[in-house]
Structure formats: structure tokens, C-alpha cells
Amino acid sequence: MTGRLPNESMIAMDETTISRGFRSKRQEQTPKNRLPPGQYVTTDFPVLSAGPTPQIKLGDWTFALQLGGSLLGKWNWAEFEALPQTTIKRDIHCVTKWSKLDTTWQGVTFDDLLKAVGLKEPPAFYIMAHCDGGYTTNVPVADLIGGKGMITTRYEGLPIPPAHGGPARLLVPHLYFWKSAKWIRRVRFMEKDQPGFWESFGYHNYGDPWKEQRYDGD
Amino acid sequence: MTATETAAQPVRRLEWQLAQVREIVVETYRVKSLLLHVANWRGHLSGQHLDIRLTAEDGYQAQRSYSIASPPEDELLTLTVERVDNGEVSPYLVDDLHVGDQFDLRGPIGGYFVWTAAMGGPLCLIAGGSGVVPLMAMLRHRERRDGHAPALLLCSSRSPEDVIYRAELDAMARRDPNLRVVNTLTRKQPDGWMGRRGRIDKALLAQECFPPEQSPKIFVCGSTPFVEDVSRFLVELGYDPLTIKTERFGPSGGQGP
User: Fold this and answer.
1) Does A51 touch chain B (CB under 8 A)?
2) Do A46 and B254 touch (CB under 8 A)?
3) What is the number of domains present in chain A?
4) Residue A32 falls within a domain, yes or no?
5) Does B14 touch chain A (CB under 8 A)?
6) Cβ atoms within 10 Å, residue A176
7) Which of A165, A179, A158 is nearest to A55 (CA)?
8) What is the structure's pLDDT at A189?
9) Chain A CB within 8 Å of residue B6 CB
């Protein structure tokens, strides 16, 4: 993700109105290739969710991989923790405009999950992530394999706090962060793409921050 | 909360549109309402928000999301903005903007944290500070539509000087026996204050909210800690989590996913 330049022609497409007397207050300049268009850097970690934060006991937690209606694999917390662990450092970008640089996550990559259920190839082109609280989001499988996506259980070396999606959340850091679904419990492979929760409420189906795909039609 | 519970989907791109400030209303010492004229506004639902974009003379741009305070029935679009000290956009909007000034916006955005008169009640609105803004759009919509859905607005503010829309809400509640407005002040109560004191806690929610058996439509909006606390209390009191819709203002502001 780093090293890519925002698409300049996308930015210049709209006519803009100069706001009399408005000036930047940004102190440090973030390199342009780190910050997608329309984003600003925050050092906070804002929380944005559509409902109450579910309180999940690790003893009750399971994670399942499905193909359509059939089960490919299912793990309890201890079994999931025993899967190969990967740690990555990435910038994350929320559609509500904040970006957070150099966040560190640990978890199990999709490549390792597929291996764990004995698959050499992903069984379909799309997934739907299903979460506690009823949240869903859709992601193309191509955006998850090759080390691009994981089920993460540690943030900055510590268990993920419930408000930030713990005990486990999907992590697809190169897409807007609503795709990195909190409180994930089930990933369902599907032949045809279908919109998830926010994707049904006018948000973009794919959500590439570098193309500023915030809303439907962007 | 399922994908099938879908509002009408916009198929056209949300284009940037020119907004002109027609009127500025001082709500509190740090909050102002901007009444905007937007030609060809496509309409919105109460509870939705929009993106604004400011452009400096050197081309620098900043985008932020703000809740819409006006109901769909109003001709002008109203944003109510709280000045966040050290913020980049809100101090400009609150302190520098004049009637006649223009900026870009696009919207409406969001279709989950919305209430329409057709959805009925009882309506249970719980606000921390400027979290009252999208809830006010719902109450204004309810009144314009002659709504009789029983409604409660429970508002937590720091001090009497921080209560937003106080006069309008008091007047609205006086006109409407089906609306109850309850204010609680967390830091400073004036002499003779007859309202509630302290933060919204479980006991206050149990006392004021419509009981779970009535399946109220619940909207909670405020800072992240406020929404986390209130929504957890509500779940503990037996309300179905799927009936509790939340919008959190992170420390950096913003709504949506």
C-alpha cells in the first residue's frame, strides 16, 4: 500500500469552492503517498459502530469458515490461537476521514486459514463476513489472499478491546476500515458478490481509499 | 440489523454541491447552527449526515462529516456544529464563517441511524452533548408530520450553558403531551435546578425510558464513552441490542461505519 500515489485525476475532477479565510492547521506534513485523498492523520483510535458493543466471552467464542451452507472448518479460541500467527504493520483508513499510521496487528492470515482446512485454492471469488450483533461486510477473495487479509486477535501486541472489535476482527487494511469487520464469527465464501451492511446503506461496494470510493457511485 | 433492512439506495454518485450560508444561529457559547441553501438538494432522512469540504487558497482541502439538524420538510439545510478546540474545521465553521459564505458539501450519507414518522414509536432518543443534533432532526420531523408517536429525549450536558436547542425543546415539549424532554447536568447545576444531576446511569434509564416490553426505537448519540456506557446499560436492562442504534463521535469527530 505504501509507495502508491493517489490518483491525481480523481482529485481534480470536482470543481472546488475556495473557503474564504480557511487555512490548514496541520503541524507535521504526512508524506502524500501515505495519506489517501480526503483523509487526515489521527493519533486517536476513534470507535464507530452501528449498535452496542457485544460482550463476548472467550469460552463461548468460535470462528467458522463456510462455503455457502457447508462448514469448511471451525475453531474455538484455543484452537484458533494455535494456528500459525502473523504480525503486520499497516496504515488504516476510515471512511469517516481519519487515518492511523503504522498500526500493528497479529492474527491468522487467510492463506493460513485455507491451508488449515486443506484447501490449496480459495473455493469462491467473494466472502461475506458475519459478526456478533448482525453486522456483515463483503470482500473479494483476491483482497484477502497473498497476505492481504487476516483474522486478527492482537492490536499493538495486546488483546483487541471489545469496542475495537475484540476478541477477533477481520483485517483488510488496504480497504476502508468498515471492511475490517469487528466481532467476526464466521466467513462465508460465496460464488456471487452480495452487499453487506454498510454496502446496503449507500457506502461503496469495494471501498478503495486511494480511489476515494466512499459512497455508491464514487 | 441485516442487509435486507435497506433504505433506498442512491445509484448516482453523491456529487459535491455548493452550499451558501443564509443564516447563523448561536445555540451555545461553543455551538452554532448554519442554515444553508443548497440548490437541488436531493432530500434526506432525519438522522443522516453529510460531508463538507473546505478548500484553502493554496489548494489544501479538509473534509469532515456533520449530522443534519433540519428535518426533510425544511427548505434550508441546517448543520449544528460544536467548536472542538484545536480542531481544524469546526473552529472555522463556528468562528469565521459569515452569512453569504460558500463551501462544498455532499450527501446525504447513512441510512441506518434514521427515523421516519412511518416507523412509529415509542421513540427513545438519548444524547450526550452535541449528540443531540441528529436526534433533533428526528424530533423536528416528528413535529412537522404531526406525529403522535410517544417520544422521550434524554439529554446529558455539562452545564446549563451547554444545553443545545433548550428553548426550542422546551417549547416543543409544552405543545406536545406525547413528548418528554429530560435534561441532566453532569458538572454544574444552577441554584434551583429542578432537572436531573449527574451522568446518565442505569437507574435513570430504567426510570425514564419506555420499558423493553414496548419495544421502543432507541437512538443513542454522543461521544464514544457516552455511547458505550449507555448502550451497555440498555442491553443490561433487557433491551434487544438490535433495537439500539448508535452513533459515536470519536475524539476526532465523525459518523458512519
Assistant:
1) yes
2) yes
3) 1
4) no
5) yes
6) 27
7) A165
8) 98
9) yes
Q: How far is residue B92's CA from residue B69's CA, in Å, rounded to a whole number?
A: 19
Which residue in the set B14, B64, B112 is minimally distant from A215, CB to CB?
B14
Question: Is residue A150 assigned to a domain?
Answer: yes
Residue pLDDT, tens place only, B119-174 = 999 999 999 999 999 999 999 999 999 778 999 999 999 999 999 999 999 999 99
CA distances from residue A205 to A128, A194, A196, A215 in whole angstroms, order as listed: 12, 9, 8, 8
Residue A138, in any domain of the structure: yes
Burial B7-19 (b: 16+ CB within 10 A, else e): eeebeeebebbbb
As a whole number of angstroms, the distance between CA A155 and CA B92 comes to 35
Instruction: Please state at what angle helix B132-144 crosses helix B166-175, rounded to 10 degrees.
Output: 30
pLDDT at B250: 58
Q: Is the pLDDT of residue B43 over 60?
A: yes
Measured in angstroms, the CA of B127 and the nearest CA of chain A are apart by 15
Query: For the segment A145-159, what is each residue's pLDDT rounded down to a tens digit?
Result: 999 999 999 999 999
CB contact under 8 A, A14 and B104: yes
Pairing state of beta strands B217-223 and B244-249? parallel
CA of A118 vs chain B CAs: smallest distance (Å): 31
A19·B103 Cβ contact <8 A: yes
pLDDT along chain A (218 residues), means of 10: 36 69 77 89 83 93 95 98 98 94 97 97 97 96 98 97 95 97 97 96 96 94
Touching check for A199 and chain B: CB below 8 Å?
yes
Q: What is the pLDDT of residues B232-242, one digit of tens each?
A: 999 999 999 99
- In terms of residue numbers, what domain contains A201? 60-211
- CATH value at residue A132: 3.90.420.10
**Domains along chain B with CATH numbers:** 17-109 (2.40.30.10), 117-249 (3.40.50.80)
Give contacts of A97 with chain B, Cβ < 8 Å: 63-65, 254
CB pair distance less than 8 Å for A46 and B250:
yes
What mean pLDDT do residues B79-103 have? 93
Give the CA distances from residue B54 to residues A17, A192, B4, B209, B250, in Å, rounded to whole numbers and listed in that order.
8, 39, 35, 40, 20
Domain assignment present for A20:
no
Are the beta carbons of A15 and B16 separated by less than 8 Å?
A: yes
Which residues of chain A lie closer than 8 angstroms to B11, CB-CB? Answer: 216-217
Q: Check if A44 contacts B (Cβ < 8 Å).
A: yes
pTM over 0.95: no
